[in-house]
């Protein structure tokens, strides 16, 4: 689940609970209709914006193991 940020407010970035206190993960934030994704190790690298359908496709692919680097 992604919590939506109020328009004009700072983004509410969230990271996976399994990452704990480490910064070795991706973070997500909702900005209007988009879900933003960034690398917690390199915030200067920018963000990737996905619409709702793209976000669902990404989640489905992760859950199915389709993106495992095997």
Automatic annotation (TrEMBL):
InterPro entries, per the entry: DUF397
Stretches assigned to the DUF397 domain: 11-63
Record-linked Pfam families: DUF397
Superkingdom of the source species: Bacteria
Region (Disordered): 1-22
The name this protein goes by in its record: DUF397 domain-containing protein
């Amino acid at each position: 689940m992604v919590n939506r940020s109020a328009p004009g407010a700072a983004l509410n970035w969230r990271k996976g609970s399994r990452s704990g206190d480490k910064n070795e993960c991706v973070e997500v934030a909702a900005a209007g209709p988009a879900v933003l994704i960034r690398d917690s190790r390199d915030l200067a690298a920018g963000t990737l914006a996905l619409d709702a359908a793209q976000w669902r496709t990404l989640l489905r692919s992760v859950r199915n193991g389709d993106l495992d680097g095997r």
